[in-house]
């Protein structure tokens, strides 16, 4: 059916990496390996935290949620990504595309809020250790987690509605999942107003999260520098390094894709960059937080030891 110069779309075509057909098999193997590590790492982290009473603390409560979000983030796009790489069936329904965009935006924004809450948790633990259990009570932690999901959901509804109010002239999405910028590029009409809505709400989320993280770590660094011993300063910086590194990579990628002028980079570059926050970071999070965390490694050793003795008995 025709509506002016546009056609009512029932399906879209995810072009993915079809411009490099010689790499399809290699990319399938690489992405499947990444997905396997992502699922095992994040689900393993969830099970370990759930089964280990010493890890039932606020910081691991939020890490538990982060692992859940990371496992879901890749899973939202996995099916269409893998099918598109091994077959010519690259279609996704209009409603399926809308749902994929909604859930991915929700999870991405929720992760931003959870990473911010984790920075605040670090600040309380280091700068107000005597009040830590009172400030970060179970009730407050649950409220912060629910607030993160609600914030992610509300922002996602805004972006999804804003995007699918457009009229699309083409059905070929130059991406491996339904994302905002590639869908904007298919519009038959001027997207200025929609671009403004995207930038305003994305900027609000980024500003809120980054300012909170920046303030938290400024106060944390000031407190660490006041520590008398060099060993204390080393431990303090080591505790924060993993989280600060992941926050920098994660938000840097999002700012590059959604807030930098679209004329400054192509959709092909956005496609490659998107691999970082949808595939690479969800895989790295459990590895970094486990390999650099003594409590997690001790809990893992105890779990393995219990299973070994149970089998032996």
TrEMBL record:
Quote the function comment for this protein: Putative odorant or sperm cell receptor.
Q: Which domain of life is it from?
A: Eukaryota
Primary localization: membrane
Record-annotated G-protein coupled receptors family 1 profile domain positions: 41-289
Q: Which UniProt keywords apply?
A: G-protein coupled receptor, Membrane, Receptor, Transducer, Transmembrane, Transmembrane helix
Topology within the bilayer: Multi-pass membrane protein
- List the residue ranges forming a coiled coil, or say none: none
Query: Which InterPro entries would you find in this protein's record?
Result: GPCR_Rhodpsn (IPR000276), GPCR_Rhodpsn_7TM (IPR017452), Olfact_rcpt (IPR000725)
* Record PROSITE patterns: G_PROTEIN_RECEP_F1_2
* Pfam hit, one: 7tm_4
Q: What is this protein called?
A: Olfactory receptor 5I1-like
Transmembrane regions listed in the UniProt entry: 26-49, 61-83, 140-158, 196-225, 237-259, 274-291
Compartments annotated for it: namely: Membrane
